[in-house]
UniProtKB/TrEMBL annotation:
This is TIGR01777 family oxidoreductase. It comes from the Bacteria. Residues 4-122 form the NAD-dependent epimerase/dehydratase domain. It holds the Pfam family Epimerase. Belongs to the NAD(P)-dependent epimerase/dehydratase family. SDR39U1 subfamily. Residues 244-292 form the DUF1731 domain. It comes from Sphingobacterium ginsenosidimutans. Signal peptide: none annotated.
């Protein structure tokens, strides 16, 4: 049975990928803190699991949906860089290392963009805490030089799916009449349907020439205003009260998160995937939300 190792695989994305790979006949081995997973402290066990694996997918990292205080910042950094380092060293100890190592990254690494889209070739790296996390995460990953393992960093946009992520909070806002624009509504919203993310992984696995950075985002990013309007339309809600920045600041403080998650303009284009001929099953936000909100 072919084998895939997923680190940090118990979250929304990891669970989806695990189920899809298992349906394809793969043995899926999980590394993480939950019972039944190989613990991060068992470095020998991780190396053993990686022997002859077709692929390693690393999704480990503390959620950024929290207040950026000193403690949370330290955990956000360490949960990404230390786990990536553990996996890299485990691969170095393998006699037959995995063919492909996919490491999560984030499209948030690019600057706040309202003037033009960010691509792998022309995107400008931003500033601030989230960007510094992404930069250090990718540096830790690419500092490993593994002659027998291809390395790809997935700069993922917001992942949309029926069973987790941001969909349920947005559904609640729209359901109770609060699904208007956030801030001025002009900030761009880059996203990816979770099934397209899975298909991108299969595409990278098949195309051995792919390495380095890949933007995992749908080819048609939209503004926050368009996103919320489409969401209301799919849910048949005509009214959506707006949330100005000052109100979002209060709300973020009350629920323990940061407004950056809503207000940063992420205008990201999957240039490399498009050039390589990847076809998105859900290229538009309307098609994606129809699938997630109606068919599921």
């Amino acid at each position: 049975m072919p084998k895939i190792v997923i680190a940090g695989g118990t979250g929304f994305v990891g669970q989806y990928l695990s189920k899809r790979f298992q349906k394809m006949g793969y043995q899926v081995i999980l590394v993480g803190r939950q019972q039944g997973n190989i613990p991060w402290t068992d470095t020998d066990g991780i190396s053993a699991a990686l022997e002859h694996a077709e692929m390693l997918i690393n999704l480990a990292g503390k959620s950024v949906n929290c207040r950026y205080n000193a403690s949370n910042k330290a955990q956000i950094f360490s949960s990404r860089t230390e786990t990536t380092s553990i996996l890299g060293k485990a691969i170095e100890n393998c006699s037959h290392p995995p063919i492909l190592w996919l490491n999560a990254s984030t499209a948030t690494i690019y600057r706040h963009a309202v003037d033009r889209p960010m691509t792998e070739s022309s995107g400008e790296i931003g500033t601030g805490f989230s960007v510094e996390v992404a930069k250090k995460w990718e540096k830790t990953f690419f500092d490993f030089h593994l002659p027998h393992t291809r390395q790809v960093a997935l700069r993922m946009a917001i992942v949309l799916g029926a069973d987790g992520g941001v969909i349920q909070p947005f559904k609640n806002l729209v359901r109770f009449g609060l699904g208007g624009i956030q801030g001025n509504g002009d900030q761009y919203f880059s996203w990816i349907h979770i099934e397209d993310l899975f298909q991108i992984i299969l595409f990278i696995q098949k195309h051995h020439e792919i390495d380095g950075i890949i933007n995992c985002a749908a080819p048609n990013p939209i503004t926050n205003k368009t996103f919320m309007g489409t969401f209301r339309s799919v849910m048949h809600r005509k009214i959506g009260l707006p949330s100005p920045k000052w109100l979002l600041e209060i709300g973020a403080l009350l629920i323990g998160t940061e407004t950056e998650l809503l207000l940063k303009s992420r205008w990201v284009i999957p240039e490399r995937l498009t050039e390589l001929g990847f076809t998105f099953q859900f290229p538009t936000i309307g098609k994606a939300l129809d699938d997630i909100l109606i068919l599921k």
